[in-house]
Amino acid sequence: MISEGMTAPDFVLDTDEGISVSLSSYSGKTIVLYFYPKDDTPGCTKEACGFRDVFDAILKKGAVVIGVSPDTAASHAKFRKKYDLPFVLLADPEAHVLKAYGAWGEKSMYGKKYDGVLRSTFIIGPDGMVKKAFPKVTPDGHAEEILALL
Length: 150
Hints:
The protein is of the alpha+beta class. The protein contains 5 helices and 9 strands. The chain has a 7-stranded mixed β-sheet. It has a two-stranded antiparallel sheet with strand order 6-7. The two termini are 22 Å apart.
């Protein structure tokens, strides 16, 4: 997993509007990059709505929020519209970026092991360096925790 003090790997992914965006296009800004398993599921909705609810305060601190999951751009578009999410959601259906950040790995549910998204967040400084890494995120209160660190 990417850790604090490392350079954040650059990438290019499509937004929910089908526009290709690179991490480096946000150079000079603080980035809250969060990885989540699936659009419109209870935990992921709670986390996204948490970021939505503190979004203006995050912007005032000079930061942007970017969500990444393996869902499609079309799925992201529905999710953003349904919950009025004001930030970009990026589609990583082949999990290349998830793997680059260490946000993809073995999970277990009901005794069954499978590979999937490891809910995690990274605060990336304007210089492209990872300032803080959260390798295991609990959706409740996470957005407020991030806001307090910015």
